[in-house]
Description:
A: alpha/beta; five-stranded parallel β-sheet
Amino acid sequence: MSKSDPNAPKRLALIASKGTLDWAYPPFILASTAAAMGWEVAIFFTFYGLTLLRPEIEARVSPLGNPAMPMKMPFGSDDFQSINWPIPTAMMTVPGFGSLATTLMKKTFQNKNVASIEEMRQTCIDLGVRLIGCQMTVDVFGFEREDFIPQTEIAGAAAFLEFAGEADVSLFV
Amino acid sequence: MTIQSLDLRGLLCPLPVVKIAQAIKKVEVGETIEATATDPGVLADIPAWARSSGQELLSMDKVQAREFRFVVRRTK
């Protein structure tokens, strides 16, 4: 237990509640970094975060409702790539725009050599991060244990709070 | 004392820290690893990792405009 034993490693408790591409990275990046620094880490996946525990993660992203998202093209000359395109909100509701935004963001990550979400998740698993699915969300949305990767533990809020109660850092994403 | 080398060029946060953490476990206590990275984040991240995990950072140098070389030693 971290707080009661000064020699114990630090502990990070993360809650991942979102399933879009832009929100999928932060919990896995923070978790893998903390684990690489010798911390004890657990991520509690609830609501749409549960989709990040599926074998194939199909996270998408949309600029609709995300006014701070930079709209830059991941191809072309450097000058072209530096343009931040002003896209009218109405255009974001055109069918296919969400898929386009997802594809462009993935290409941006690829260009910069950023690992995919599945790779980041595997790094977390390799470093001993616990991946915990929220029992309640699983029941409410009709998921089954078999829908998720085998490393998933299923637990409720009380079990997670017990872990988080002794954590040095607790974050809600 | 052998020096292993690790190429972290092109990798962005958190991969440099993750890779060095994995690599340090593969060398003996007392051995060192020399790594080359291009992510400017390593300037702050690697010292933080070393302090946090109890390993020793022997040097951190900027060798080119966007290239950094650091040496860490496994202490435990």
